[in-house]
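[agent] plan:
  1. take the single chain provided in the ticket
  2. run structure prediction with default settings
  3. attach structure tokens to the ticket
  4. add a short note for the reviewer (M.T.)
[agent] executing step 1
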Amino acid sequence: MQFLTAVSPQSFSTPSWKVETKYSTRVFTGNWVEERRKFTKATEKTPQCIYRKEYVPFPDHRPDQISRWYGKRRIEGLPYKHLMTHHQEPPHRHLISTYDDHYNRHSYNPGLPPRRSWSGHKLLWLPEKSDF
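[agent] step 2 finished; step 3 output follows
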């Protein structure tokens, strides 16, 4: 019966107390400071991203202005004239200042419940909806 081993046959002739390695793997031997400072490039080419490698240029291509205009128009939303005019009424009739609302009371309606405000002491909106 023969055993196949990956160990060299010389190791069988040495006594077992000499089989250990001479140094630990963490011990630096030789001129390790200068070897540590050496920098070896992995490749001779500069690394490039995948997009740059796979990019196919189209020199005659021109951007599509019409789809750009539609996208810009969609982002802008409704124009001012659609928001502030109604059947050719002047726009100043729809605008009211905070001063007018609080002191001149143009839009005051006694049938509406009183305005609620946040009470930081009670951590509630007062008056509560159940109060009116």
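[agent] step 4 note for reviewer: The mean pLDDT is 73.
[agent] ticket updated
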